[in-house]
Amino acid sequence: MGCLQRGVLGGCSPRVCHPSIIAFCTRPTEPSLNRPDDWQHDHEVGGERQSPPPATTLDTTRVDDVRIGAVRPLISPALLLDDLPMPPASQSLVEEARASMSKILSGADDRLIVVVGPCSIHDHEQALAYGRQLKALADELSGELLVVMRVYFEKPRTTVGWKGYINDPRLDGSFRINEGLRRARQLLLDVAELGLPAGTEFLDLLSPQYIADLVSWGAIGARTTESQSHRQLASGLSCPVGFKNGTDGGVKVASDAIVAAQASHAFMGMTKMGQAAIFETRGNADCHVILRGGKAPNYSAADVQACCAVLAKSGLREQVMIDFSHANSEKQHRRQIAVCADVAGQISGGEHRITGVMIESHLLEGRQDLVEGQCPAWGISVTDACVGWEDTAPMLRQLAQAVAQRRRVKTSP
To answer: Whole-model pTM above 0.70?
Structure first.
């Protein structure tokens, strides 16, 4: 799709406001959990004005929300799910993928979980083009690998930068979050229709209500693994969740996160109807560590042993998922190939504690900067550099061969 058709940098063609949004924005007297605050009686949207509020409502109090520049309506999860419902076939796909991963994590299935895909999603059609290629290979290797497409919509930032497809779907600083939520959910529906399970990172604490039903596997990133709120979130998510080690490489923080996520919690949140509520969770037994490196890589056999020792000390299952990218590749995307070879060697040697891997992969290798006024090049990441498909396919086949060899090692006298 060309730039003129998109009308914006790097996004799909703009969509009109959904009727449900228009409805609750234009009927202020109708009792609804989804309408904005009453502009005639709520000081947060301008006090006792006698005319309708502007599209963005500025706070005018002296002591509350003094650093809030604007408040805009947000579609409720229930409205979005009603407009973009999950078909029965997609429900079955997600249920089966989650159950299979649970078996792998418990040792009942000896396949390897492979979460592979772009560092971040920035274009719908490119994501589907990648997914079509991945689906064919996933079917070919399904006896050894459980392939999950990496579909990341939210990007944590050390300082500032593009925060992802939900926060800024048009890649231009317009922050059309309602549109981003709609695009994200539609893409997950389309990926499920391909027959691929999807995995994503949960960063914002509200976004799971809009998309979590379509997610087969979730991750909590290195910057948020220590966050109590994210540990509580993981305890209530319906999918398996991986916690990355800390940015310094420490594994104990991830081990502690698993212990916390396995427990039940009570915390404040938002229901799918958009109402504030207290959630009580049951705990998540399908949580695991993701080794992503820190001050140094931590994918070696010695690192796996050290991680498992920490887990055992906390009474947890000795198992790891290894992220080939980030600090393990020392930010050099092609080093993922060498990391893959090392990990495949460990698996071939009989290492059963490696239950999964992650690969940052796109249609084409490398990365590119977002430049105002220019369309991003097709098939190249706009965040972290990725390996291209021509390298991805051999990596997955290498991992499948390693799993097959691990089985032979296990059954040999």
So the answer is: yes
